[in-house]
Amino acid sequence: DDPAVQIASNTSEAKLTNDLVVKIKNVLNQHHFQYHNIEVTGNNLLIRFSDTDTQFKAQAFLKSIVEPQYTVAINLAPATPHWLQWLGARP
After folding, report:
1. What does each C-alpha distance from 9 to 20, 22, 25, 33, 43 come to in angstroms?
2. Bridge partner list, 3
3. pTM score above 0.70
4. Are 23 and 72 in contact (CB under 8 A)?
5. Burial of 1: CB neighbours in 10 Å, binned 0-12, 13-18, 19+
6. Is residue 86 within 8 Å of 80, Cβ to Cβ?
7. pLDDT of 37-69, one tens digit each?
C-alpha cells in the first residue's frame, strides 16, 4: 500500500473542481512535497506519497488550506496494478 492523503468534500456545495486540484498541485510543488500522483474520483482526491513522513506533513499543511469545506485524512491506497486486481490479487 502507498501512504496517501485523501481529500473529500464536506458539503454538497463543496465540489472538487479542476481549479482546486491545480491549486493543491501548485502548493505541494511550491513547498517541495514529493508525491507519486493525484487521482480524482467523484468528490474525492487521493494523493500518493512515497513515505509516511511526507504523508503526515502534507496532511497537516493541506488541512490549513482546504478546511472547513473539505476533510483531509490519512489513508493507505492499494498499489496493486489493475491487471493483478483483475486476476483477483490483493495487497
Report:
1. 11, 16, 17, 22, 6
2. 76
3. yes
4. no
5. exposed
6. no
7. 999 987 899 999 999 999 999 999 999 999 889
